[in-house]
Amino acid sequence: MTTRTITVEGMSCGHCEQTVEEALESVAGVESATADRDAESATVEGDADVDSLVAAVDDAGYEASA
């Protein structure tokens, strides 16, 4: 299993973090996801493709980059 951290911009509250976590956890291969609005990042455990992670966050309304 791989741990990846991606940059996520636009989170301003706990609900934003939860939305990002749920979006990431919906990606095939993700075991768990933790978003941190203060660090503007999300850490993902699993074997998901990084492009899929970025796309999921973008689709949820936030800006992500690897």
UniProtKB/TrEMBL annotation:
InterPro entries listed in its UniProt record: HMA_dom (IPR006121), HMA_dom_sf (IPR036163)
Residue span(s) of domain HMA: 2-65
SUPFAM superfamilies: HMA, heavy metal-associated domain (SSF55008)
Record PROSITE patterns: HMA_2
Coiled coil: none
Xref: Pfam families: HMA
Protein name: Heavy-metal-associated domain-containing protein
Native source species: Halobellus rubicundus
